[in-house]
Amino acid sequence: TRIDKGGHKHFMAKEIAEQPHVIGEALNHYLTADGTGINVPESLPDFRGVERLVLVACGTAYYACVTAKYWFERIARLPVEVDIASEFRYREPPVTDGTVALFVSQSGETADTLAALRYCADKAAHVVSVVNVPESSIARESGTALPILAGVEVGVASTKAFTCQLTVLYLLALKAAQQRGHLDADALTDRLSALRSLPGILNHALAQDRSAKKVARKLAEADDILFLGRGLMYPLAMEGALKLKEISYIHAEAYASGELKHGPIALIDKRMPVVVMAPKDKLFDKTVSNMQEVMARGGKVTLITDEAGLDEAGDGVTNTLVMPTVPDDLAPILYAIPAQQLAYHTAIAKGTDVDQPRNLAKSVTVE
Ligand code: G6P
After folding, report:
1. Model confidence pTM above 0.95
2. SIS domain spans which residues (predicted)?
3. How much distance in Å is there from the Cα of 161 to the middle of ligand 1?
4. Helix 59-76 to helix 233-248 angle, to the nearest 10 degrees?
5. Is 300 labeled as catalytic in the residue annotation?
6. Which residues pair with 31 in a beta bridge?
7. Mean pLDDT per 10-residue segment, the chain (367 residues)
8. Does the structure's ipTM exceed the value 0.90?
């Protein structure tokens, strides 16, 4: 089938807009017909017998893995190690038959991820992959391949594949929690029904595109941008910074908010835009106090939060993007949208090639 831009200026814009639909497809695939259970292939190991989960990937898929670590540890009480494939493969990490090694890849062809997979398969680990291309090498060489059903992704900067990866990883964390006795039937049903309402909520976030565009016009003037987040918002801050540098060529980096005073605070002045991702969750007050340290030094803050967060901490902030309220664990999937919109519109303002950024490839099949 021929893939076109479907009326959008860029594939990236189209793929950002498709997210509610493709996440809905993934949910239809993995949820049982009555919506109270999660379907997984027979070949997937039972997480009761698993000692350790190792998550390995590159680029955006790696940030999906870092997010998933928080979910697997907190909800399923499963020890998780997460690493970049190019580091993992040469570290000679101990891997045993009590290990599930999970590889996340949009293309399923990334050379380092495939090599890391082969290393684990050799050591008798259970090899599971979360992939977008079901006939890819990584899918074929896995004991269990879980499709993310994002459809073809053309833009080099990954968008819909990221949120579909998150959706599948979250479902897997719930499955593991259920098997390990940390999630009863009622709690699971609640979480799944919240997940079912996510596509509609994502549409509300997409509708904020104009606000993101306004903020992006200002970000486009910066030389460096700092992204801050805590807990589940930390990997998302990393993904936001990655998206921005990939397509706008502005230097961006992400820090866990709590690390601010251990270095990056030295960079803060009035020329330094700081994007703070902070839904009103348990860590909100901590993030806000870090944000205030930034503002006290003249840093220009863009706060991405929800209504309650805005009420509590909106004073003195330069820009705000207000998201719908969702359960804490679903926030990374929702907050990915403003991160993508900011990168997209900043790139447009700078006039760069959004779909084909310089020096980057969609899939890195050589080392
Ligand atoms: C390249 C792409 C990224 C992608 C990464 C991993 O760097 O430009 O968008 O996240 O590879 O690719 P994979 O196909 O393994 O997810």
Report:
1. yes
2. 43-182, 215-357
3. 10
4. 170
5. no
6. 38
7. 87 98 98 95 96 97 98 98 97 92 98 97 93 98 98 96 98 98 97 98 97 98 97 98 97 97 93 97 96 95 98 95 98 98 98 93 90
8. yes
